[in-house]
Amino acid sequence: MWNWSVRWMSLVGIVGLVACGAGKVDGEDADTAESAGGGAFDVDEEIEFDGDGPVVISGRMWCDSGGESAGMITFFEVRYADPQGNSDVEFGEVAVYATGSTTEVFRDEMLVCRSGTCEATYRDGVYDSSVTCSTVDRFDFFATVTDRSGLQSEAVTIEWED
Questions:
Q1: pLDDT digits over 96-107, tens only?
Q2: Does 115 fall in a domain?
Q3: Calpha distance 41→76 (Å, rounded)
Q4: How far apart are CA 87 and CA 11, in angstroms?
């Protein structure tokens, strides 16, 4: 019985080491990343990493009706890449400022990030009663993403789509 247990534990250990070693090794360059559409894009051609931190590729936002009881809802979609792989990004943040001002209206780690895309929604009036779908033109929206090492991307403007 003891001999069988030792063999089983050895097998489990070897399989675990092989599985852990199958990923990217530290210092190894990433050649591709998954795009939001499910296809791969060449990281070396589209993204220029300045260090080990993630990069926001683009951000967009739009509004839509959430139904009779929900009111208007603001939607966010942010694309990103990380040199350690897109699964290394832990969360994204949206910061809102009065247009042309350094006055911050609100900031929140609302973006849920997975596979190169972060998404979030909020209903009118949840964060600040002045930031609604009908007043978005009075504000500037910025996105950042943060990886598991605590490295944060540069802030990128989230573009409004009608």
A1: 999 999 999 999
A2: yes
A3: 22
A4: 28
